[in-house]
Amino acid sequence: MMQAAFSSRALRWRSSASAALTMLCAIAALSFPSGGARAAAPIAVAVADFDYFDTSGEVVDQSAAHRARMASFATLLRDNLAAQGDYRVVRIECPDLLARQPACRRMFSSPPRARPARGWWSMAVSAR
Q1: Which one of 50, 78, 88, 111 has the fewest beta carbons within 10 angstroms of its own beta carbon?
Q2: How many Å apart are CA 105 and CA 34, to the nearest integer?
Q3: Per DSSP, what are the bridge partners of residue 123?
Q4: What does UniProt give as the signal peptide span (predicted)?
Q5: Contact 121, 18 (CB under 8 A)
Q6: CB 52 within 8 A of CB 67
Q7: Three-class SS state of 107
Q8: d(CA 36, CA 19)
Q9: Are 75 and 50 in contact, with CB atoms under 8 Å apart?
């Protein structure tokens, strides 16, 4: 019983640490200016909505709750970036056109599972 409680706490801590690390990596990746000097104007950044694919095989369908969590995470990420003052959050009007911009730096992130106990995220940063 004690081991199960410890294991549950460890998983929650690992999930929180993983989410914090993801946020720090996102902020660090977006904070490097394209030139040699620090940019005076806020950096324009767009945060796309997250897609959700249920691969859990849970008996009870919790897709709506998981989608709501993913949407609130994207909103929280946008709000926190905007509150820092270093970033100007912009809408993605046309993702295909945005991807073709020569000075566009992108970060792609995908959670393999939306369950908090398994909140490991993969991330790739592209700086063209």
Answers
A1: 88
A2: 9
A3: 109
A4: 1-39
A5: yes
A6: yes
A7: strand
A8: 30
A9: no
Q: Is the pTM of this model over 0.85?
A: no
Q: Where are the alpha helices (DSSP H) in the chain?
A: 2-31, 63-84, 95-99
Any idea where the domains of the chain sit in the sequence? 2-127
- 123: enclosing H helix or E strand: strand 122-127
Structure tokens at 17: 């640490």
* The amino acid at 110: S
**Residue 44: beta bridge partners?**
88
d(CA 102, CA 90) in angstroms, rounded, equals 17
Q: Tens of pLDDT along 45-67?
A: 888 777 777 777 778 888 888 88
DSSP per-residue letters across 4-34: HHHHHHHHHHHHHHHHHHHHHHHHHHHHS-S
Residues constituting the chain: 128
